[in-house]
Design the sequence.
């Protein structure tokens, strides 16, 4: 299966750099709406057979123009929502305590899945719920599936599950709003990242992920 993971369009909390992960969450800014409208053209070459979005409003609003353009229903699933910030909810992502969010999330990708977000879920729960939706999509028989999800969730899941994406790459390469990660594979055979925010990712065994590094600490949501 070809799996296209798309971060949602810009929200007011993105502008304010806040850890905003609770359901239903905010809508899109004017820029976010324009980003959503541009998504059908950005993915014009993809033969998308199924389209998913999380339970947060921003992903469903981002998916709507693509759904309309392709004549697809949006399948809403809680499992691909953002990694819960727990007690860190609405803190500035670049604050001393707010930075604990991404440190915890990337520790999950590194294998420490028993670690718990303060007041929130642990890595096994977060990755497990995402795995379940991906498995559902794979079992549907669709050849290409798009999922509109969230920045931290996409980066951490891809780093944990794609054999050719290492933690250092995921840490330094954030996803801008409506940024796309494309993978290929299956839950049984594993996943290989093909591209990350437009940059080609090297095949497994060829020196790890390649592409243009992107600066920034990668605050999610």
Sequence:
């Amino acid at each position: 299966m070809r799996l296209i993971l798309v971060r949602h369009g810009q929200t007011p909390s993105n502008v304010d750099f806040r850890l905003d992960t609770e359901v239903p969450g905010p809508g899109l800014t004017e820029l976010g709406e324009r980003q959503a409208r541009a998504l059908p053209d950005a993915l014009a070459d993809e033969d998308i057979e199924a389209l998913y979005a999380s339970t947060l409003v921003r992903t469903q609003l981002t998916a709507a123009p693509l759904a309309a353009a392709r004549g697809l229903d949006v399948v809403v699933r809680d499992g691909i929502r953002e990694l819960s910030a727990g007690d860190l909810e609405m803190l500035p992502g670049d604050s001393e305590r707010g930075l604990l969010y991404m440190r915890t999330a990337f520790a999950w990708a590194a294998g420490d899945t028993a670690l718990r977000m303060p007041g929130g879920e642990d890595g096994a729960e977060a990755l497990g719920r995402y795995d379940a939706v991906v498995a559902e999509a794979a079992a549907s028989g669709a050849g290409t599936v798009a999922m509109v999800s969230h920045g931290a969730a996409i980066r951490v899941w891809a780093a944990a599950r794609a054999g050719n994406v290492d933690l250092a790459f995921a840490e330094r390469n954030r996803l801008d709003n409506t940024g796309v990660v494309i993978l290929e594979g299956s839950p049984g055979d594993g996943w290989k990242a093909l591209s990350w925010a437009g940059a080609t990712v090297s095949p497994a065994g060829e020196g790890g992920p390649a592409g243009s590094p992107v600066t920034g600490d990668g605050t999610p949501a």
Notes: Confidence is low (pLDDT under 50) at residues 204-219. The first strand starts at residue 2 and ends at 7. Strands lie at 2-7, 50-53, 74-76, 144-149, 180-186, 190-196, 199-200. DSSP finds seven helices and seven strands in the chain.
